[in-house]
Amino acid sequence: MTKNEQILEYIRSIAIGTKISVRQIATDMGVSEGTAYKAIKDAELLQLVSTMPRVGTIRVEKIEKKGIQKLTFAEVLHIVEGTVLGGHEGIYKTFNKFVIGAMAIDEIKRYLSDGDMLIVGNRDDAHKLALDKDCAVLITGGFSCRDEIKRIANEKKLPIISTSHDTFSVTSILNRDIHERLIRKEILMAEDIMPKDLYYIEGTQSVGDLKKKIRDTGHSRFPVVDSNRQVIGIVTPRDIAEAKDHDLIKNLMTQEPIIISKDTPVAYISHVMIWEGIEMIPLVEGKRLVGVITRQDVIRGLKYIRSQPHLGETFEDTLLHHFKIEETEKGIRLVGDITPMMLNELGIASAGVLVMLMSAAGSFAIKKEKQLDSVIDSFMIYFIRPLQMENTIEIYAEIINVGRKFYKVDIFVKHQKEIVSKAMMSAKILKK
């Protein structure tokens, strides 16, 4: 284990909320301040620590994706572009819900519970009530608070944040951000499908060692690592087809393989596997191997995504809600109206929106035919004619050519039985 990795492990062992410094880490670990500084910066990238003006570097708890709908006070501070007036030490705590203090003080009391955040203007009585109920305060309108409130906030480690935005703007900003987080929450990442068992082989091992590992594990492809478990290559049965048992893996492996991190979306991984024609990708943290993703893992992950309820919607989801999907003998038909959200600044249907709908129809047609996921390889638009708001359109996607790995789809848009747009899509299939 390298010095950097030892320091990262030490930082992980430090209690949440503890303040750390370069000098302290250098002293505790017996390393130079330069080495300690680099390790702390790496820890920031891994979300093990966070640095904030007037607070310093704090050991924080990484907020897992599954609970991303819960915000920390620090995230609220960033979202509303605020400043911390008091309670700095509690800035990285998570909280339960927002309460808007646009009511009498007795009514506010009914809605507050431990761990909430009160959004209110320059109302000293509401600030005091929130702290008494163990709640943080977000003061809108750019107002401050009394010194007594700041003192109580510091004692209780409950942040008092001030923002120049008004209450309505703050609520809108926070609602938008939470909606985006819900969408991100639904995006399956590499770490969500990564198998627990980790198999690899070192470059200094032999072909004989690899053959034994293949027999013992049932796997045929392995990442190749050095003595620090950093990925240096990939080895497959094809690489050792003509090799002798005493030959070293590092002399036969494929060097500089594609690698991914834990926060790489599964959909992106599937695209890479299709484009590059690969079956397995090493997953690293920093440069150190922490997992392996196979094509089978990706396919299982994509099936899981489709089976889950959706809490947030993408723009494409919103568009497709306005269209009815029907199966035809040759493919798929989408039927719907041009809505205001689909218009450009000239008041006609946006070309980008039409392309998005046409590509979605093409993907639906392939899915209907093959029941497999596909990745667009090329999309050629022949023409697009202007469409107005409330025009009813029909989008047809018909498969015209099927290969072993490719599908070609003819796509055209009709309005009042006239073709107003036409395109050709080519897609690659993700097979097991």
Automatic annotation (TrEMBL):
Keyword Membrane found: no
Keywords per UniProt: CBS domain
SUPFAM superfamilies, per database record: CBS-domain pair, HprK N-terminal domain-like, Thioesterase/thiol ester dehydrase-isomerase
Pfam families, sorted: 4HBT, CBS, DRTGG
Matches recorded under SMART domains: CBS
UniProt KW Flavoprotein keyword: no
Domain CBS stretches: 194-251, 253-314
Protein name (record): Predicted transcriptional regulator containing CBS domains
